[in-house]
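Board notes (copied after class):
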Amino acid sequence: MFKTKCKKTVSKMILSFILITVTLLSGCQKNSTHSAIEFGTIDVSEIDKIELSGTTGGKDGNFSYTLSDQEKKEFVHLLNQVELGDEVDKNQALSSGAVTYYKLYFQGKDIVTLCPGHYFGVDEKYYEFVNFDELWDEFVTFNSKQDTSQQDKWDCSVTCAETSETNNYVVTYSDKKVFSQTGILTFQNSNNFNIIVHLQIPDEEERTAEIPAGGVSSLYQISQNKACTVGVYADVPENETIKLMVYDGAVADLNSSQEKEQVYFDATVLEVKKKSIKVKCSESFDSGIPVDEEFSVTTNRVESGELPDLNAGDHIRIAFDGIIKESYPLQLGNVFAIYLLDENGNL
């Protein structure tokens, strides 16, 4: 009798131990699927800078952009609201097309790369984006930051400080500081005379470029994110204005930014939010956007500066630069204008 009770007690103890072990292991496994980074605790003071980069489906290809101090604060505030779920397979996440990346440079020299999309990437791992529907429009706004400045540019025009003579070569320096994220700086001579550009890069030898009247020239292998000083020489009288524009990127990039292509499509407004509208494409024309595709369009960055009073159910026409970012949901490049259509589909 005693032996039987003893065996039952031992069996119950073993079974209880197994159940406790399984429960603990399950709990550990579940916790391990969450990202190590705690978005809610990130403080903007911990971050030196945030770089935005990615690819587009249009002619301009890759893009990059460094968030301003104010944009950095706003982006960290947005990150504080992100809720992540379980880890998902990387191939599954990448198939959703999310190709916009944010690189966070922490003061402790740590660098974290984020990839927000239908799934949220943290370095090499991807997770369920629990509040995607709630926050995605805000991320779309940040993803579009580079659109207002596909190419950083500076007006480095100067007033000639002194007339140059045979033994007196005078270079007049602009007070603007220029930075290159591409490793290339392009100089545009908007004068009817030749100029020589002098580029001073910290801790490096001065670089020069001779540019004919109305011409464009590029300097390559520029150290990235260094504050460079631009000077210009021209055989002109004192106090003559010397016009010079500097662009971050190659000559091809400059030409494409000056020749703005414009395409358009018609859509139905599904939802109106503070900084964006959700639309459904009704007529593609030559825009490359599939009919019935649903996505958000930012409304606080429309180049025309004019936006009609929109409501759900309105029929509209959206003019943009033809760039479609390869993400899910898709995103547009520069939005030039949004027009309200009448019941016949006319402006």
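Comment from the instructor: The chain has three domains: 39-149, 153-248, 263-340. Residues 130 and 339 are 34 Å apart (CA to CA).
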